[in-house]
């Protein structure tokens, strides 16, 4: 199963329209892959809070249209990263879109853990309430977005729902890059899954992005890692490896559910 991670640059000197066209052509260049993944909020930038309201789109807006077409042109499963979605009530969500190779929307995932403490995404956006998995022919994706990476219980929920490839679309900042690598590897090891962690490059809203997108195998080994700049990382995954790892080292079977509360 060939996966391509597109670590697109999100510098503010490029318009959203131009980046949308460029993202579509980067996806088309990956024809032949099975799965292509873009990062979090790449049209606008994850920290560009002042642009969220002006750049918000309906679910089936311009990014949806461009990405559905790119997926079908390339004939790939496309995790198109996330957009600022405005719903019918006017609420904003950080919503990831996954398209089939014929360009149909397979699933959308609204980010559950909002970043920013008492500002930014945490006050501007509503929280998603649903865990989302996407069955592909060779694997089941479990979806997460950026700050979600810090909450292991979300990933356990995805694994319990059958996920064996965890996809994290992010706009992770350079200043916390050490956490990015550590947490991506931890999620792979503790869940015995592949982790595809896709970030942005460049700087927007004064926040340098970490880049360094990662592919981690179910043993926690880093199979591939991008540098800081725009880059596409292509890796062949062995879809049998999560089950094989769980057979060889059956730690997931030893989980104790309903742990006692401290006395
Ligand atoms: N931007 C995010 O969603 C998460 C983040 O920056 C972090 O450190 O966590």
Q: How would you sum up this structure in a few lines?
A:
With 263 residues, this protein is an alpha/beta fold.
Characterize the structure shown:
It is a single chain. The chain is of the alpha/beta class. The protein has a single domain (2-250), classed as Nitrilase/N-carbamoyl-D-aminoacid amidohydrolase (4-Layer Sandwich), CATH 3.60.110. The protein is built from 7 helices and 14 strands. The strands form 3 sheets. Strands 5-4-3-2-1-14 form a 6-stranded mixed sheet. Strands 6-7-8-9-12-13 form a 6-stranded mixed sheet, covered by helices on one side. A two-stranded antiparallel ribbon has the order 10-11. A hairpin with a 2-residue loop joins strand 10 (203-204) and strand 11 (207-208). Helix 1 runs parallel beside helix 3. The chain is globular. The N and C termini lie far apart (48 Å). The mean pLDDT is 97. Bound molecules: the ligand NC(=O)CC(=O)C(=O)O. The ligand NC(=O)CC(=O)C(=O)O binds at residues 46, 115, 146-147, 150, 171-173, 176, 179. This is Carbon-nitrogen family hydrolase. Belongs to the carbon-nitrogen hydrolase superfamily. NIT1/NIT2 family. Keywords: Hydrolase. InterPro entries: C-N_Hydrolase, C-N_Hydrolase_sf, UPF0012_CS.
